[in-house]
Automatic annotation (TrEMBL):
<keyword id="KW-0472">Membrane</keyword>
<dbReference type="InterPro" id="IPR011527">
    <property type="entry name" value="ABC1_TM_dom"/>
</dbReference>
<dbReference type="InterPro" id="IPR027417">
    <property type="entry name" value="P-loop_NTPase"/>
</dbReference>
<feature type="transmembrane region" description="Helical">
    <location>
        <begin position="20"/>
        <end position="42"/>
    </location>
</feature>
<protein>
    <submittedName>
        <fullName>ABC transporter ATP-binding protein</fullName>
    </submittedName>
</protein>
<keyword id="KW-0812">Transmembrane</keyword>
<feature type="transmembrane region" description="Helical">
    <location>
        <begin position="137"/>
        <end position="170"/>
    </location>
</feature>
<keyword id="KW-0067">ATP-binding</keyword>
<dbReference type="GO" id="GO:0005524">
    <property type="term" value="F:ATP binding"/>
</dbReference>
<dbReference type="InterPro" id="IPR036640">
    <property type="entry name" value="ABC1_TM_sf"/>
</dbReference>
<feature type="domain" description="ABC transmembrane type-1">
    <location>
        <begin position="125"/>
        <end position="301"/>
    </location>
</feature>
<dbReference type="Pfam" id="PF00005">
    <property type="entry name" value="ABC_tran"/>
</dbReference>
<feature type="domain" description="ABC transporter">
    <location>
        <begin position="333"/>
        <end position="570"/>
    </location>
</feature>
<feature type="transmembrane region" description="Helical">
    <location>
        <begin position="54"/>
        <end position="71"/>
    </location>
</feature>
<dbReference type="InterPro" id="IPR039421">
    <property type="entry name" value="Type_1_exporter"/>
</dbReference>
<feature type="transmembrane region" description="Helical">
    <location>
        <begin position="239"/>
        <end position="263"/>
    </location>
</feature>
<dbReference type="InterPro" id="IPR003439">
    <property type="entry name" value="ABC_transporter-like_ATP-bd"/>
</dbReference>
Amino acid sequence: MREIRVLIATAWRVDRRLTLAMIAEPFGNTLVLMSGLWLAMLTNGVIQQDTRQVVIGVAALVLGAGLGWQLDLSASQWRMVLGEKVAHAFDTEIARLSAELPTLEHFERAEYQDQLELLRQRQGQLGNSMSALAVTVKAICAGLTVLILLVIAHPAMLALVLLALPALLITKAQQRWRATAEDSSALPGRTARHLRTIAQDRDAAVEIRLFGLADNLERRIDALWNEQRRPVEHAERKVALASLAQQVLYVIGVIVAVGFVLYQAIQGQSAPGDVVLAIYLSQQVQTAVIWPIQAVTGFGRTLHTVSRFLWLVDNARAATGSLPAPEQIVDGIRLENVSFRYPGTQKWVLRNVDLTIPAGGVLAVVGENGAGKTTLVKLLTRMYEPTEGRITVDGVDIADLDVEAWRERLAAAFQDFARFEFTLQQAVGVGDLPHLDDTGRVRTAITRSNADVLEQDAQLGTSWGGTDLSTGQWQRLALARGLMRTNPLVRFFDEPTASLDAFTEDALFDSMARATDGANGMITILVTHRFSTVRSADRVVVLADGGVAELGTHRELLDRDGRYARLYRSQADAFAD
């Protein structure tokens, strides 16, 4: 019922007039099905030379069938228009929900990816959802009409219903076969789509050509497509054979039932019109039983797809916390016995981490690759929740904060940045949506990040007739986005200058560190693998083996002559060489 409510509510939201007009379709179809009754009356009137019956029969046929066909046809066209609007509404909502899933956990879980893949594969069914609902209501109304007419023709005709009932069990089995086939096809379908994306990816194009991977990708995609289709085709063969067996049984029953009513008419025990009605209805009993069952089954598949959509809705709302984000940080952020491992893995990335980040300071996070630097940032931005332990800001668990409100108080620039092919103004301005069109603020962010590569109204990206940028220029724009919010609580710079040379990075990091405004206790966190850039930080934390190996100022750690000092000297020596 939840799925049905979602369908009706969506249709009502996009077009109330067309949603109400859907009622006309089952009504029009019922009028058409009544034609058998009017044919019987007309036949009896002709044979019995009863002018009254003839007139009523002809008038009812012309008016009833004509109006019925017109209503049925018009409503079908209205249904198609409504279906397009509903499809657009669902497509828009799926895109929004996919972008707003509160964490990145779904990217790490295979079962999440399989569910998303099945939703993508069946997304077109959501556009046909109102059609499926209308057809189901139409089929049920038609079935009830035919059952009533069967009793009018001869109660014995109801025996045909019994012969059609096996379709119920067959259809249920067919639905189960198809559902199993869908689940089996999810992984190879997702893998094939991934390979097709790689084959069309500009960044992968050089290596594909250099290593001659085109044929290999094509073969793998073909193999995966066949693997995806194999269970589906097997299920459809079983469906077809089961349907054939049921249809043969039903045809035999029709011959027997119509023959019985004909015998009754010959013996004078029923009117000639009953034979006409029986012949007409024998073609419609499929409507009475099989069509409603098939319609309900088809609608069931649609509801199954809607349930996948609702799964996405539920996951988008999965994040806990409703408290407002603080206006300022007074004491600082504290990690209390925090441990984390990525979903589906057994390896601890962070283990029993205790760390205090004072308000109003600059913390540099360093360590070798895989030490957990970026993971720490993801936890603080709530892209993931700690597996164990908690993270607090001024004593309040950030898991209790509204996730969107918390992120609105953060700013960040990352090594893995997005290339928004908008105008330069927009590509930077999206870092603070309320000021998207504020040319002055965007100009300030561009200047601070040294990202003055084009005019602010210039189109980026050759796909749109604009200008392509180097990786370093794209990264400067990402850095500018991270500087758009002028008064965040926490500002993260996670390897945001990896594509820049060491001297430029050092100058930028020093500028960003000095830009910290202590008025609201803003914390700046610099994440880098280049130790020469962290000297301007107030404190340096060295991550290693899943925990905090060292903590102190740059000078204190050098004097301690531990891990930090060794790594710092090794980088300095390599740079000198």
